[in-house]
C-alpha cells in the first residue's frame, strides 16, 4: 500500500505531550467521571446528567448522508460499498506543513479518547452517541496553523462510482462545511473515528468525520478528505443550497427558529412512542464551554 504521508514529523512536531496531558487532566477534572468508567473526559452536559446513549441500531440506521440518498435509511443500505482504505486527508492552505496525510498515520499520532456527546440534528431530533476520536486541534497542530488563518474549510470525498446519491444534485458536491478557527480549536470539537468503541461504520462517516456538539448536525461533515486553512469564511453546502434556512454558524439555539419549523424543542430518538419531547438547550447544553466564543454577536443575525 502506497503511503501518501509526505511529511517527516516526529512527536516533537506535534502538540507537546505535557500540553495534551494538561488539557486531558482539566477535562477529566471537569468531567467528574463517577460511574462512567471506560469513557474519557466527559465535557458538557455529561457532567450534569447521565447521558444514556442511544442504541447501536438507532445510531447506525437513522442517518443523514446525502451522498447515499436522502432517506434516513439510505446510508445504512448503500454506504457499505464505499472504499475507506487507503484514505488520506489533504491539509492545505495556511499551514506550515501542507500535504496528503495518510489516515492510519494520523491515527498513530493522535491521542484517542472516548466521549459521550449529545448530538443534535436540525430537524428537531437528538441522539446521544459515544464517540471515539481525537481533538481537531491536535490534527491542526500536526499541520501547523499559520497566524493569518481565520477559518477551517472541510470537504467530503466525492466519488460518484461508490456514492449513488451524488447522481442527484440535491447539494452541490462535494459536501462542504466550515468552522471559525476558534471553534475548530475548541477542545469539544472532535474528529470522530469510532462509535461505541468500534470503527465508524461507513454510514456514520468512515473513516473520520467531524463532531461539533453545540451545533446542528449538518456541521458534522462525514468522510473528510480535505481540510483547508483560510482567511475567508468558507462556503458550506447547506448555506449554498438555502442561505435563508442555513447560516454559517448553525449553533443550536432554541430562540432562533428555522423558517419552516420551531427549534425550541426536540425529540430524543429511540424512545419509541413515548419518546419525550424536551426543551432544546442553548448551544445544545454546552453553553458553559462555548458561549464565550460568541460574546457580542447577534446570534439571530449570525445563525
Ligand atoms: N458528507 C456529508 N456529511 C454529513 C451529511 C451529509 O449528507 N453528507 N449530513 C449531515 C447531517 S444533516 C447530519 S444530521 C449528520 C448525521 O450524522 P449521523 O448520520 O452520524 O447521525 O451528518 C452530517 N454530515
Ligand atoms: Mo441534519
Automatic annotation (TrEMBL):
Q: Which Pfam families match?
A: Oxidored_molyb
Q: Where does Mo-molybdopterin bind?
A: 66-67, 121, 156, 204, 209, 220-222
- What EC number(s) does the entry state? 1.8.5.-
Q: Which PROSITE patterns match?
A: TAT (PS51318)
UniProt KW keywords: Metal-binding, Molybdenum, Oxidoreductase, Signal
Summarizing the function annotation, the protein's role is:
Part of the MsrPQ system that repairs oxidized periplasmic proteins containing methionine sulfoxide residues (Met-O), using respiratory chain electrons. Thus protects these proteins from oxidative-stress damage caused by reactive species of oxygen and chlorine generated by the host defense mechanisms. MsrPQ is essential for the maintenance of envelope integrity under bleach stress, rescuing a wide series of structurally unrelated periplasmic proteins from methionine oxidation.
Record-linked InterPro entries: MsrP, OxRdtase_Mopterin-bd_dom, OxRdtase_Mopterin-bd_sf, TAT_signal
What does the subunit section of this Swiss-Prot or TrEMBL entry state? Heterodimer of a catalytic subunit (MsrP) and a heme-binding subunit (MsrQ).
Residue ranges annotated for the Oxidoreductase molybdopterin-binding domain, each copy included = 83-238
What reaction gets catalysed by this protein? L-methionyl-[protein] + a quinone + H2O = L-methionyl-(S)-S-oxide-[protein] + a quinol; L-methionyl-[protein] + a quinone + H2O = L-methionyl-(R)-S-oxide-[protein] + a quinol
What about PTM? Predicted to be exported by the Tat system. The position of the signal peptide cleavage has not been experimentally proven.
Q: What family does the database annotate?
A: Belongs to the MsrP family.
Q: Which residues cross the membrane?
A: none
What cofactor requirement does the entry state?
A: Mo-molybdopterin
Cofactor binding note of this UniProt entry = Binds 1 Mo-molybdopterin (Mo-MPT) cofactor per subunit.
Domain of life from the UniProt record: Bacteria
Q: What is this protein called?
A: Protein-methionine-sulfoxide reductase catalytic subunit MsrP
Q: Which SUPFAM superfamilies match?
A: Oxidoreductase molybdopterin-binding domain
Amino acid at each position: 500500500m502506497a503511503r501518501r504521508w509526505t511529511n517527516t514529523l516526529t512527536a516533537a512536531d506535534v502538540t507537546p505531550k505535557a500540553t495534551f496531558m494538561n488539557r486531558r487532566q482539566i477535562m477529566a477534572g471537569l468531567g467528574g467521571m463517577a460511574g462512567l468508567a471506560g469513557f474519557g473526559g466527559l465535557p458538557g452536559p455529561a457532567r450534569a446528567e447521565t447521558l444514556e446513549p442511544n442504541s447501536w441500531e438507532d445510531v447506525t440506521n437513522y442517518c443523514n448522508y446525502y451522498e447515499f440518498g436522502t432517506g434516513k435509511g439510505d446510508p445504512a443500505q448503500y454506504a457499505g460499498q464505499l472504499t475507506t482504505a487507503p484514505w488520506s486527508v489533504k491539509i492545505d492552505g495556511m499551514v506550515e506543513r501542507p500535504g496528503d496525510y495518510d489516515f492510519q498515520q494520523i491515527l498513530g499520532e493522535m491521542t484517542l479518547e472516548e466521549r459521550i456527546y449529545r448530538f443534535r440534528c436540525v430537524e428537531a431530533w437528538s441522539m446521544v452517541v459515544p464517540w471515539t476520536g481525537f481533538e481537531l486541534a491536535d490534527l491542526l497542530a500536526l499541520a501547523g496553523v499559520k497566524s493569518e488563518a481565520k477559518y477551517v474549510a472541510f470537504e467530503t470525498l466525492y466519488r460518484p462510482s461508490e456514492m449513488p446519491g451524488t447522481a442527484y444534485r440535491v447539494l452541490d458536491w462535494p459536501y462542504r462545511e466550515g468552522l471559525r478557527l476558534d471553534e475548530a480549536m475548541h477542545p469539544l470539537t472532535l474528529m470522530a473515528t469510532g462509535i461505541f468503541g468500534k470503527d465508524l461504520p461507513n454510514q456514520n462517516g468512515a473513516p473520520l468525520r467531524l463532531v461539533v456538539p453545540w451545533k446542528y448536525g449538518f456541521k458534522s461533515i462525514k468522510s473528510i478528505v480535505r481540510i483547508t486553512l483560510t482567511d475567508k469564511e468558507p462556503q458550506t453546502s447547506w448555506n449554498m443550497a438555502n442561505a435563508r434556512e442555513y447560516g454559517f454558524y448553525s449553533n443550536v439555539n432554541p430562540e432562533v427558529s428555522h423558517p419552516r419549523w420551531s427549534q425550541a424543542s426536540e425529540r430524543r430518538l429511540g424512545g419509541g412512542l413515548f419518546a419525550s419531547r424536551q426543551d432544546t438547550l442553548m448551544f445544545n447544553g454546552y453553553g458553559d464551554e462555548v458561549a464565550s466564543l460568541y460574546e457580542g454577536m447577534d446570534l439571530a443575525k449570525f445563525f
